[in-house]
Amino acid sequence: MTPSDLDALLAARHSCRAFRPDPVPRTVIEGIVSTARRAPSWCNAQPWQLTVTSGAETDRFRAALQQEANDETPDPDLDWPTRYSGIYQERRRTCGWQLYEAVGVARGDRAASARQMMENFALFGAPHCAILSSPAELGPYGAMDCGGFVTAFTIAAQAYGVASIAQAAVASYGPLLHRHFAIPEDRLILCGISFGYAQSDHKANSFRTERAAVSDIVDWRGVA
Ligand SMILES: Cc1cc2nc3c(=O)[nH]c(=O)nc-3n(C[C@H](O)[C@H](O)[C@H](O)COP(=O)(O)O)c2cc1C
Questions:
Q1: pLDDT digits (tens, 9 = 90+) for 97-124
Q2: Closest ligand 1 atom, CA of 209?
Q3: What is d(CA 22, CA 55) in angstroms, rounded to the nearest whole number?
Q4: Residues framing ligand 1 (Cβ under 6 A)
Q5: Which of 88, 96, 98, 195 could lock onto 84 through a cystine, CB 3.0 to 4.6 A?
Q6: Sequence-ordered alpha helix ranges (H) in the chain
Q7: Average pLDDT, rounded, for the chain
Q8: Cα 27 to chain centroid, rounded
Q9: Distance (Å, whole) CA 179 – CA 103
Protein backbone atom coordinates (compact mmCIF):
# COMPACT_ATOMS: atom_id res chain seq x y z
CA MET A 1 0.00 0.00 0.00
CA THR A 2 1.39 3.42 -0.94
CA PRO A 3 0.87 6.58 1.14
CA SER A 4 -1.63 7.78 -1.45
CA ASP A 5 -3.59 4.47 -1.18
CA LEU A 6 -3.80 5.02 2.57
CA ASP A 7 -4.79 8.66 2.11
CA ALA A 8 -7.54 7.61 -0.31
CA LEU A 9 -8.86 5.06 2.21
CA LEU A 10 -8.95 7.66 4.99
CA ALA A 11 -10.50 10.25 2.68
CA ALA A 12 -13.22 7.79 1.63
CA ARG A 13 -14.31 7.16 5.24
CA HIS A 14 -16.97 9.44 6.62
CA SER A 15 -19.49 9.23 9.40
CA CYS A 16 -22.54 7.41 8.06
CA ARG A 17 -25.93 8.61 9.32
CA ALA A 18 -28.27 6.37 7.32
CA PHE A 19 -27.72 2.61 7.03
CA ARG A 20 -29.34 -0.21 5.11
CA PRO A 21 -30.80 -2.94 7.33
CA ASP A 22 -28.85 -5.87 5.83
CA PRO A 23 -26.34 -7.37 8.28
CA VAL A 24 -22.57 -7.53 7.95
CA PRO A 25 -21.30 -11.15 8.01
CA ARG A 26 -19.63 -12.12 11.26
CA THR A 27 -16.40 -13.03 9.40
CA VAL A 28 -16.22 -9.43 8.12
CA ILE A 29 -16.81 -8.00 11.62
CA GLU A 30 -14.07 -10.27 12.94
CA GLY A 31 -11.78 -9.02 10.15
CA ILE A 32 -12.47 -5.39 11.12
CA VAL A 33 -11.73 -6.05 14.80
CA SER A 34 -8.66 -8.11 13.89
CA THR A 35 -7.22 -5.14 11.97
CA ALA A 36 -8.32 -2.53 14.56
CA ARG A 37 -6.54 -4.43 17.37
CA ARG A 38 -3.22 -3.39 15.78
CA ALA A 39 -3.76 0.12 17.20
CA PRO A 40 -0.98 1.15 19.61
CA SER A 41 -1.67 1.61 23.33
CA TRP A 42 0.35 2.76 26.30
CA CYS A 43 2.32 -0.24 27.72
CA ASN A 44 0.45 -2.32 25.12
CA ALA A 45 -2.40 -2.48 27.65
CA GLN A 46 -4.96 -2.80 24.81
CA PRO A 47 -7.70 -1.48 27.11
CA TRP A 48 -10.50 -1.79 24.52
CA GLN A 49 -13.38 -4.21 24.93
CA LEU A 50 -16.35 -4.31 22.57
CA THR A 51 -19.89 -5.54 22.97
CA VAL A 52 -21.18 -6.08 19.42
CA THR A 53 -24.88 -6.40 18.61
CA SER A 54 -26.66 -7.83 15.60
CA GLY A 55 -30.24 -8.46 14.47
CA ALA A 56 -32.80 -8.65 17.27
CA GLU A 57 -30.16 -7.67 19.85
CA THR A 58 -29.52 -4.39 17.98
CA ASP A 59 -33.26 -3.73 17.80
CA ARG A 60 -33.72 -4.47 21.51
CA PHE A 61 -30.87 -2.07 22.37
CA ARG A 62 -32.17 0.59 19.96
CA ALA A 63 -35.61 0.48 21.59
CA ALA A 64 -34.15 0.67 25.12
CA LEU A 65 -31.87 3.60 24.14
CA GLN A 66 -34.70 5.55 22.51
CA GLN A 67 -36.87 5.00 25.57
CA GLU A 68 -34.06 6.15 27.89
CA ALA A 69 -33.40 9.25 25.75
CA ASN A 70 -37.08 10.17 26.05
CA ASP A 71 -37.34 9.54 29.79
CA GLU A 72 -33.98 10.24 31.41
CA THR A 73 -31.30 12.92 31.57
CA PRO A 74 -27.86 12.02 30.15
CA ASP A 75 -25.41 10.43 32.60
CA PRO A 76 -22.26 9.43 30.67
CA ASP A 77 -19.40 7.56 32.39
CA LEU A 78 -16.92 9.97 30.77
CA ASP A 79 -17.73 13.64 31.39
CA TRP A 80 -18.65 15.58 28.27
CA PRO A 81 -16.47 18.56 27.29
CA THR A 82 -17.35 21.56 29.47
CA ARG A 83 -17.43 23.88 26.45
CA TYR A 84 -16.32 24.32 22.86
CA SER A 85 -14.94 27.81 22.26
CA GLY A 86 -13.19 29.69 19.45
CA ILE A 87 -12.17 27.56 16.47
CA TYR A 88 -13.54 24.40 18.14
CA GLN A 89 -16.96 25.95 18.53
CA GLU A 90 -16.77 27.15 14.91
CA ARG A 91 -15.91 23.66 13.60
CA ARG A 92 -18.64 22.08 15.73
CA ARG A 93 -21.21 24.51 14.35
CA THR A 94 -20.03 24.06 10.77
CA CYS A 95 -20.38 20.28 10.78
CA GLY A 96 -23.76 20.59 12.54
CA TRP A 97 -25.04 22.99 9.87
CA GLN A 98 -23.68 20.78 7.12
CA LEU A 99 -25.81 17.93 8.46
CA TYR A 100 -28.92 20.09 8.94
CA GLU A 101 -28.61 21.61 5.47
CA ALA A 102 -28.14 18.16 3.94
CA VAL A 103 -31.31 16.77 5.54
CA GLY A 104 -33.32 19.99 5.14
CA VAL A 105 -33.50 21.21 8.75
CA ALA A 106 -33.97 24.99 8.63
CA ARG A 107 -32.02 27.25 11.01
CA GLY A 108 -34.10 27.82 14.14
CA ASP A 109 -36.37 24.80 13.56
CA ARG A 110 -35.77 23.26 16.97
CA ALA A 111 -38.32 20.48 16.58
CA ALA A 112 -36.69 19.30 13.34
CA SER A 113 -33.16 19.51 14.78
CA ALA A 114 -34.30 17.57 17.87
CA ARG A 115 -35.79 14.91 15.57
CA GLN A 116 -32.51 14.62 13.67
CA MET A 117 -30.59 14.44 16.98
CA MET A 118 -32.87 11.60 18.13
CA GLU A 119 -31.68 9.61 15.08
CA ASN A 120 -28.54 9.02 17.19
CA PHE A 121 -30.59 6.85 19.52
CA ALA A 122 -32.10 4.96 16.60
CA LEU A 123 -28.44 4.20 15.72
CA PHE A 124 -29.20 5.81 12.33
CA GLY A 125 -30.88 2.54 11.36
CA ALA A 126 -27.64 0.52 11.64
CA PRO A 127 -27.91 -3.26 11.90
CA HIS A 128 -24.98 -3.36 14.36
CA CYS A 129 -23.61 -1.36 17.25
CA ALA A 130 -20.26 -1.90 19.00
CA ILE A 131 -20.13 -0.55 22.57
CA LEU A 132 -16.57 0.41 23.52
CA SER A 133 -15.34 0.36 27.11
CA SER A 134 -12.03 0.83 28.93
CA PRO A 135 -10.94 -0.04 32.48
CA ALA A 136 -11.78 2.90 34.77
CA GLU A 137 -8.39 2.54 36.50
CA LEU A 138 -6.57 3.47 33.27
CA GLY A 139 -8.36 6.83 33.28
CA PRO A 140 -7.85 9.28 30.40
CA TYR A 141 -4.96 7.24 28.97
CA GLY A 142 -7.20 4.20 28.54
CA ALA A 143 -9.71 6.49 26.82
CA MET A 144 -6.91 7.90 24.65
CA ASP A 145 -5.83 4.41 23.56
CA CYS A 146 -9.46 3.57 22.82
CA GLY A 147 -9.72 6.69 20.64
CA GLY A 148 -6.98 5.20 18.46
CA PHE A 149 -8.92 1.95 18.37
CA VAL A 150 -12.04 3.81 17.18
CA THR A 151 -10.06 5.29 14.31
CA ALA A 152 -8.54 1.94 13.41
CA PHE A 153 -11.96 0.27 13.55
CA THR A 154 -13.60 2.84 11.27
CA ILE A 155 -10.74 2.74 8.75
CA ALA A 156 -10.68 -1.08 8.74
CA ALA A 157 -14.46 -1.05 8.25
CA GLN A 158 -14.03 1.30 5.28
CA ALA A 159 -11.50 -1.11 3.75
CA TYR A 160 -14.22 -3.82 3.90
CA GLY A 161 -16.81 -1.48 2.37
CA VAL A 162 -18.57 -1.19 5.73
CA ALA A 163 -19.82 2.26 6.79
CA SER A 164 -19.64 3.38 10.41
CA ILE A 165 -20.09 6.23 12.84
CA ALA A 166 -18.55 6.72 16.29
CA GLN A 167 -21.26 7.96 18.64
CA ALA A 168 -20.62 9.60 21.99
CA ALA A 169 -24.42 10.02 22.04
CA VAL A 170 -24.80 6.25 22.53
CA ALA A 171 -22.71 6.47 25.72
CA SER A 172 -24.91 9.29 27.10
CA TYR A 173 -26.92 6.86 29.17
CA GLY A 174 -24.21 5.01 31.11
CA PRO A 175 -26.51 3.33 33.66
CA LEU A 176 -28.70 1.86 30.89
CA LEU A 177 -25.67 0.51 29.00
CA HIS A 178 -24.12 -1.10 32.09
CA ARG A 179 -27.48 -2.68 32.95
CA HIS A 180 -28.48 -3.72 29.43
CA PHE A 181 -25.18 -5.38 28.51
CA ALA A 182 -23.99 -6.34 32.02
CA ILE A 183 -20.82 -4.25 31.51
CA PRO A 184 -19.05 -4.12 34.92
CA GLU A 185 -18.99 -0.80 36.80
CA ASP A 186 -15.18 -0.83 36.82
CA ARG A 187 -15.20 -0.18 33.06
CA LEU A 188 -15.93 3.23 31.50
CA ILE A 189 -18.30 3.10 28.54
CA LEU A 190 -16.76 5.53 26.05
CA CYS A 191 -18.86 5.46 22.91
CA GLY A 192 -20.78 3.32 20.49
CA ILE A 193 -19.78 2.62 16.90
CA SER A 194 -22.82 1.96 14.75
CA PHE A 195 -21.97 0.18 11.52
CA GLY A 196 -23.40 -1.57 8.48
CA TYR A 197 -23.81 -0.81 4.79
CA ALA A 198 -24.49 2.81 3.85
CA GLN A 199 -27.65 4.11 2.26
CA SER A 200 -25.39 6.03 -0.12
CA ASP A 201 -28.16 8.07 -1.69
CA HIS A 202 -29.57 9.27 1.66
CA LYS A 203 -29.28 13.04 2.20
CA ALA A 204 -27.66 12.55 5.63
CA ASN A 205 -24.73 10.90 3.83
CA SER A 206 -24.41 13.57 1.14
CA PHE A 207 -21.94 15.96 2.78
CA ARG A 208 -18.28 15.73 3.79
CA THR A 209 -16.63 17.57 6.67
CA GLU A 210 -13.62 19.82 6.28
CA ARG A 211 -10.15 19.54 7.76
CA ALA A 212 -7.67 22.18 8.89
CA ALA A 213 -4.51 22.60 6.77
CA VAL A 214 -1.24 20.99 7.85
CA SER A 215 0.07 24.51 8.55
CA ASP A 216 -2.78 25.02 11.05
CA ILE A 217 -1.87 21.81 12.87
CA VAL A 218 1.94 21.77 13.08
CA ASP A 219 4.23 24.13 14.96
CA TRP A 220 7.49 23.37 13.13
CA ARG A 221 10.70 23.56 15.15
CA GLY A 222 13.94 23.20 13.27
CA VAL A 223 12.32 21.29 10.41
CA ALA A 224 13.79 22.45 7.09
C1 LIG B 1 -15.44 9.82 19.61
C2 LIG B 1 -16.44 10.33 18.60
C3 LIG B 1 -17.76 10.52 18.99
C4 LIG B 1 -18.71 10.97 18.06
N5 LIG B 1 -20.03 11.10 18.45
C6 LIG B 1 -20.96 11.42 17.53
C7 LIG B 1 -22.34 11.41 17.89
O8 LIG B 1 -22.72 11.13 19.02
N9 LIG B 1 -23.25 11.70 16.91
C10 LIG B 1 -22.87 12.02 15.63
O11 LIG B 1 -23.75 12.27 14.79
N12 LIG B 1 -21.56 12.02 15.27
C13 LIG B 1 -20.60 11.71 16.18
N14 LIG B 1 -19.28 11.64 15.81
C15 LIG B 1 -18.91 11.89 14.42
C16 LIG B 1 -18.25 13.25 14.22
O17 LIG B 1 -19.23 14.25 14.20
C18 LIG B 1 -17.47 13.20 12.91
O19 LIG B 1 -16.42 12.26 13.02
C20 LIG B 1 -16.84 14.55 12.54
O21 LIG B 1 -17.83 15.53 12.31
C22 LIG B 1 -15.97 14.43 11.28
O23 LIG B 1 -16.76 13.96 10.21
P24 LIG B 1 -16.43 12.59 9.45
O25 LIG B 1 -16.38 11.49 10.47
O26 LIG B 1 -17.60 12.41 8.50
O27 LIG B 1 -15.13 12.75 8.76
C28 LIG B 1 -18.32 11.24 16.72
C29 LIG B 1 -16.98 11.05 16.35
C30 LIG B 1 -16.06 10.60 17.27
C31 LIG B 1 -14.63 10.36 16.82
A1: 999 999 999 999 999 999 999 999 999 9
A2: 23
A3: 9
A4: 14-15, 95, 120, 150, 165-169, 191, 209
A5: 88
A6: 3-12, 26-36, 55-71, 86-103, 110-118, 139-159, 174-181, 214-217
A7: 98
A8: 21
A9: 34
